[in-house]
Amino acid sequence: MTNRTGYGQFCPVAKASEILTTRWTPLILRELISGSSGFNEIHRGVPLMSRALLASRLRELVAHGIVVRDGSGAYRLTEAGAALGPIIIGMGLWGQRWVESAADGPDWDAGVLMWDMRRRIDTGVLPPGRTVVQFDYSDAPSELRRWWLLIEDDDVDLCQSDPGFEVDLYIATSVRVMGPVWIGQRPLAPAIEREEIRACGRYDLARSLGRWLKLSVIAEQAERAGRPRAG
Question: CATH 3.30.1050.10: which residues of the chain?
Answer without folding.
Answer: 110-225
